[in-house]
Amino acid sequence: STVEHGFPHQPSALAFDPRLQLMAIGTKSGAIKIYGAPGVEFTGLHKDTTAVTQMHFLPGQGRLLSLLDDNTIHLWELVAGPPRELGGVKKEGVVSLNEVGSYSLPGRPGIESCSATRVTVLLLLKSCDLLCIGTEGGGVYFLELPRLLLKDNLTLPQDQITQSLPDDYRCGKSLGPVESLQEHPQQSGKILIGYSRGLVVLWDLNARHADQLFLGKQQLESLVWERSGSLFVSSHNDGGYSVWSVTSGNACNPQPVSSTIPYGPFPCKAINKILWRTTQAGSPVLLYSGGMPRASYGDRHCLTIQQDKDHVTLDFTSRVIDFFTVHSVEQEKEFDDPSALVVLLEEELVVIDLQTPGWPSLPTPYLAPLHSSAITCSCHISSVPPKLWERLVNAGRQSWPICGGKNLAPPPKQQELLLTGHEDGTVRFWDASGVALTPLYKLSTANVFHTDCDPCDDPQDPGNDPDMQQEEEWPPFRKVGCFDPYSDDPRLGIQKISLCKYSNKLLVAGTAGQVIVLGLNDERSDHSVDVSVVDLLQDREGFTWKGHDRLEPRLKPAPFPPGFQPQVLVQCLPPASVTAVALHAEWNLIAFGTSHGFGLFDYHRRNAVLVKALCTLHPNDSLAMEGPLSRVKSLKKSLRQSFRRIRKSRVSGKKRTITTPTSKANAALAEQEEVAPVQRRIEPRSADDSLSGVVRCLCFADTFLRDGTHHGPTLWAGTNSGSVYAYALEVPGVGSGRACERGGASESSTCVEAVLGKEIQLMHRAPVVSISVLDGRGKPLPDPYEASQDLAIAPDMTNAHSVLIASEEQLKVFSLPKVSAKTKFKLTAHEGCRVRKVALVVFSSAVQEDYSEHTLVCLTNLGDMHLFNIPGLRPQVRYDCIRKEDISGIASCVFTKNGQGENNMFNVLMKKKKQKKLESPCCFTLSLIFFTYKYLHQTVWHKCLDLVLLQQSCVSNLLWNEKQKHSSDFCCSVSVFKAELFKPASGAKNSFSAAACLLSSAGFYLISPSEYERFSLSAKVLTEPLCSVQLDRPLEFTLAR
């Protein structure tokens, strides 16, 4: 089955069921997505990948009509499956969306038969038994529902209307296509028919005659009734709208009551759709899209809301597809009283609260555009504490007007967070615990600084000038929506994120050298942020920074909403992009690195502990030196190769006299070994590279550095030139038998001190990708607070520790404190690839709950994944995971710490594009987002190791495919691969078994937007979501497939 995440790709139609509170979105690829309350989602796929142009719900029935671009009409139904049994308790069946019928309007005989019967508009009567169809030829047809039978006796050709028109209006011209059909709100059977030329006819369906004619002279775009039925409003292509009065006894009405061009008098664009909603306050709410002055704002995507003197022009960043209001539809109610406006845009869904003064926008619990601003970094947090989770949910909680259906999915056993940093300086928190990503909370760092995009920072604000204000307040634009792929100030971009889930401390670092420490607060706060400047070059002479300026911090108190609020701002100089960060909340320390060095800062005492300068060149200078450097490298390489050839020729010359068969065989074998890519020769990198000072990784560890008997806090830093610096730290209250209180260090006035303990230089100067310290048992050290709060097994401090250093070319383990090499694996020499991402992951046995193994997982530049045991670094498995051409996907990959759920297997299941079948375990995406994927097997959630991929391109959706448990292809492919992936290592205890692998009964594949047309919702196997809906009609049980 196919499931779509994020915002649908190329939406084309919108519908709403006010009784069931369900919303439907159709796409250009023929997909239908129905949404209700958060977690309620249904998917339908047409047989052909044709654009959905219109959709209409049959209110309360769970039925949906869709019109495709190929002129076919389809009927869909929500159908319930048989009741389920969970733990011996009978539960209601899961509802799915199924197509039950289709209809194509037959063409009339003649050359223009196809165009004449092309459907332009649909109208579903309130009785839900008749569908009115307007066509391009001007005719109106009627279809009986739900049988989809054409009622020939009700067909209304355009000629019949033309005969009743006055001669001066007829003029031999055609009325044009039917543009709008609207049923009278109080009198059933009476329909407004609007033609493109401007004519509007009130047609009595029962008497089959025209009650009234409204002779409009401007090209018509849309119609809408007022609730009482005494008047209606028409919008036109000149940017204006007209109000018409409906009175009995007046068969022909040549003039409207009023006509208005709101943004005239200059030529304006058409008002594509208009709504009129009555309120108890007296003044109606008028909503319409378009109508902007053609010359000045013709390229704007706008929707206007008017009520009395209140007038707002919502300015969107993408095209308006359609919109509707959530309002009262009960017949006994006198007013509409709209509560919300829902606008479907090309790139996002926007909801406006119409009951709150100012009409603010509401955050959406689904359909969030993950690419609203370019994603620059990500961070995954597993097993989030309940208190932190509740506070995050409360910080971003908002009401949601679409609340239909019931989510039947069981609650997750643990909560998981995905944090994404964006180019606009925001950090977004996503609920990654379920099947879909749900936005929880958005943090903005822009209000910490004075930026160009903040109008309040300009001392010469044009708003203070009455003349300027009068010129700029019309039209009254207001930017709405979160989709904005172009940042106003790229210096705000978030580059690194680190979160301590136990102390509620958040560390974010940006493009302009800003490092911000934030704390969680449930209340709104007005305060100033402490600012500390750290000069990484320590005023070194001869250096001139040629890059962007630093962001100017706000010195006065600023308002901060509930959630994470900034406490300390550390500004690095030069203001280069931050390349690495580390947070240790238990010691109140943060470490940060750029292309010029790294620093250590005590955010409790607000002082810098350590500053280490590594580079004196601006990164841009490397472009000017690229030619000479590459030339030197090539010269060295050619000289080295020449000497090797000479050496080989001498050796071969000495052995030419030996002609025995054994010598020939040995020579052939040596030649074969030399040609075979078993172990490649690695050339050392230049030490003069201007990028050698880039800090690649930082980490804190409580380990043995000075001697083998005393352990204490340490800081480790790895650079781009293969250098590793290890500092011994003296933290007050740590290592002296006194444990620091949570959230703050000892009250002693003693400052933190740092002393260089070790310095390691890798032989080939390959960039250091990751540094991890292993305890006496060869396991990674626990996170801060985990050991002191008994949240994890305490590390082994009795046996010798070791440090695992992963460079781009090899993995190496050193013993501590002597820093002597224990074991290594030359990945580049053996496999011809370079390491890009590394993580230590916990794999738990599905058979024995108390057994788990720590494994080193690394992703290479070729897109393949390698697994090694630690600390022995024995290769376990290799798998081709991502296309090597997907450079952005590989560079932005993130591994989770462990797999959670009942089956903590590293279960990677990928779709082979050509064969379209699952063949082996893998958890990856070829597109934008990380997802925490879960598999449903009867009553148990099975979850694989999560692999996060975040691409910085604009991506609108993610898809995966699941095969059923009883699929022979799936079971066969798993059984073939299990011998390779889950083959027990020699001496391994209770290694993963094939039976454990088969517990996960569903696989998936993901599709990038660039391949959307080929591999997207054209798949015909549909998802069965865990949700239900209460309908007015009975839900027939269907047998499960």
UniProtKB/TrEMBL annotation:
Q: Tell whether Transferase is among the UniProt keywords.
A: no
Please name the GO terms that the record assigns under molecular function.
Answer: GTPase activator activity; myosin II binding
Which residue ranges does the record assign to the Lethal giant larvae homologue domain? 260-360
Q: Which Pfam families match?
A: LLGL
Cellular component terms, GO, for this chain's entry?
cortical actin cytoskeleton; plasma membrane
Family annotation (InterPro entries): Lethal2_giant, LLGL2, WD40/YVTN_repeat-like_dom_sf, WD40_repeat_CS, WD40_repeat_dom_sf, WD40_rpt
Region (Disordered) residue spans: 650-671
Instruction: Identify the domain of life.
Output: Eukaryota
What SMART domains does UniProt report for this protein, alphabetically? WD40
Q: What is this protein called?
A: LLGL scribble cell polarity complex component 1
What is the scientific name of the source organism?
Answer: Salarias fasciatus
